Amino acid sequence: MTVQTATLPNGLRIVTERMPGLQSAALGIWVTAGGRHERPEQNGVAHFLEHMAFKGTATRSALQIAEAIEDVGGYINAYTSREVTAYYARVLEQDTALALDVVADILLNPVFDPHEIEVERHVILQEIGQALDTPDDVIFDWLQERAYPGQALGRTILGEAARVSRFNRDDLATFVTEHYGPDQMILSAAGAVDHDAIVAQAETLFAGRAARSARPAESARFLGGEARHDKALEQAHIALAFEGPGYRDPSFYAAQVYAIALGGGMSSRLFQEIRERRGLCYTIFAQNGAYADTGMMTIYAGTSGDEVAELSHLTIDEMKRAASDMSAAEIDRARAQMKAGLLMGLESPSSRAERMARMLQIWGTVPPIEETVAKIDAVTAEDVRALAEWQAAQAPAALALYGPLHSAPALSELQARRAA
Q: Considering the entire predicted model, what is its pTM?
């Protein structure tokens, strides 16, 4: 399998990888335009735009977009994150050209029909309401907001209902003009694909689009803080975040390994101590997230209102203990989990296409899998302990709580425990 790249004169980057033995292909366009690229008054527009992509173009109705892909047994979808918006499809080999034509059509020729805007606005408002009614969903938005207060990176991807209720066609068109230039897009395809054919088709489809100057994203600063939402729920939900390295930071892989060892599986420290030995929760996990210029390790758990303080204190204690006695065996296990997750995922052409697009966005090139595995293998116990010590004692922290909070600790109490 060989990764091939090309760049059109207008800046559109193309990356493909043929996977022998497959009869299907995954392809999509990743746009460097997500929640953190919005101005305050635009919050939620990137996600709204993603929804509108499937609501009709100059040549296809919403139904025709769906039928074009589903008539050949494929599927098409999209997502919005804080740094990218992706539009992608999966089809059989002989339908690759059709899939690229449809994906390019929804990006290049949206009509933003006023009626469809109103229909989709209602859908998004329902999505916002559903998120607010889901404690282990909305709590992460509150945590992000407290980690990066007053910043684009801290705002919810869905946007606030009041603002979403006001978006109009001009708002959508403005965001497209600001962020959807060909030089802000990456066309990525994997599976049963022909690189030269995809490049030739992309040249035809995107030839009329000129490069545009991208509006840079606002720099992020992890400041930390606390959000408390007392409500009569069955459980108290707690989410903690600690500043971590961005994905270009040399300690990124150590942070990934540490999060897995701390709370990434059934053998992890938090799962074993807090769920298996103490029985304080059903769900507890830690995960590491990273952005271009910052990162955060997040720990989440749900427990009874009477036990949230004990669970919180034990979590801090486990973090402090990991800084001094994280063993080589734990590091080896976490590295193995990380490598297995990476390599198993790359057996899917969809995962490969996404990885190539993200690597090209981050590094300007697609490093070989072997290089990434070598970086994971190079993480030492000393690397992990150093990161664990910094996060346990010094890194800025954020806390979000939701549910019966009569015994829930304040962030200041947990900070004091970190310093003790």
A: 0.94
Mention every residue, 6+ apart, whose C-beta is less than 8 A from residue 402: 135, 138, 139, 142, 229, 231, 233, 236, 237
| Catalytic-role residue among 17, 38, 41, 50 | 50
- 3-state DSSP call for residue 161? helix
CA proximity to 398, closest of 246, 251, 221, 270: 221
Give the dihedral of Cα atoms 271, 274, 276, 279; nearest 10 deg. Answer: -140
Instruction: Reply yes or no on whether 347 is catalytic.
Output: no
Instruction: Give the pLDDT confidence of 108-146 residue by residue, as tens digits.
Output: 999 999 999 999 999 999 999 999 999 989 999 999 999
Residue at token pair 């990176």: 153
Tokens of residue 281, six digits: 């929760």
Q: Where are the beta strands (DSSP E) in 245-361?
A: 284-290, 295-303
Cα separation, 290 vs 248, whole angstroms: 9
C-beta separation of 109 from 173 below 8 A? no
230-278 pLDDT tens trace: 999 999 999 999 999 999 999 999 999 999 999 999 999 999 999 999 9
| AA identity, residue 117 | I
